[in-house]
Amino acid sequence: MLVGGLSLAGLIPLSGFWSKDMILATAWADGNYLPLLFMVVTAILTAAYTIRMLNLVFWGESRRDKTTHEAPWQMTVPLVLLAAGTIVSWLGIGFLSRAYTSFNLSDHGLTLISFIIETFETPVVWISIAAFLIGIGLFKIRKQYAANKAGEQSVIIARQGYGFDAFYGGIIRCLRGFSTHFRKTHTGDLNYNVAGIALGFLLLILILFFIGGGL
């Protein structure tokens, strides 16, 4: 869990760092600076939330009377393999790059050394590292931050899911209302259903016909 969490947070040289850096580097190279800004903020929050999760689950004081136990080997072994892959999988970038190139899936073949050099030649890598460090810093000062007015309000917004929960809930309520009314149009009679399918297919053919400019 520690390896997976730190990889998610973007600790170098775990695989999460390389994948995050390549996404940021692509946005930088294409001039998509606004999406890049959002991704950097997201990377900072991801690091802070991940360290907070590790602290709550493994390092903090228990809030329950029940004691935990280790998972059975059927779960432990796959997790160990995944953790090992998280640590060393990026070492196969040269092989994967050449494989993609040989199958015409990429025109930019790399060796491991050239991949590392190319990564650290761009300024984005330092932004990526800074995002990880800032995220750790946010976790360290979380209590002091939440104690002031601005921090208190932002914590409330965060606990409300930044408004996404309410947004998704509104969509679900609308879909549920639409479905409730729409189901009344279904009689369950096979003849009506077949006729509806036929009319829908005919309508689709007519739309394609006129969009395509006729015969």
Described by the principal axes of the CA atoms, the overall outline is: extended
Count every helix, treating DSSP H or I runs of 4 or more residues as helices.
11
Main β sheet profile: none
- Share of β-strand residues: under 5%
Unreliable residue runs: none
- CA gyration radius, whole angstroms: 26 Å
Round the mean pLDDT to the nearest integer and report it.
Answer: 85
State the helical fraction.
over 70%
Distance between the termini: 62 Å
**Tally of strands:** 0
H-E order: HHHHHHHHHHH
Derived structural class: mainly alpha
Total domain count: 2
Break the fold down into its secondary structure elements and pairings.
Blueprint lengths: L1 H8 L5 H15 L3 H27 L13 H16 L4 H10 L9 H10 L2 H17 L1 H6 L1 H11 L4 H19 L7 H22 L4
Helix pairs in contact: 1-3, 2-3, 2-7, 3-7
